[in-house]
Design a protein that fits this description.
The chain is an alpha+beta fold. It has 2 helices and 4 strands, in the order βαββαβ. A hairpin with a 4-residue loop joins strand 2 and strand 3.
């Protein structure tokens, strides 16, 4: 298992949190995704054999948020 913290701009509410966590959790290989709205980040635990950092970034950006 690997862990990564991704900085995300534009998340302000519970809907934002749900959208980002939901998009990441749909990816095969994601064990957990936890958004911290105050810190503008999401902590992801994942199987690096199944999912790439670029696919995680793409999933977040597809929801309308900017990855720093």
């Amino acid at each position: 298992m690997a862990q990564k913290t991704i900085k995300v701009e534009g998340m302000t509410c519970g809907h934002c949190k749900s959208a980002v966590e939901g998009a990441l959790n749909e990816l095969d290989g994601i064990t957990s995704a936890n958004v911290d709205l105050e810190a503008d980040k999401v902590d992801v635990e994942y199987d690096d054999q199944k999912v790439t950092e670029s696919s995680m970034v793409e999933a977040i950006e597809d929801q309308g948020y900017d990855v720093k």
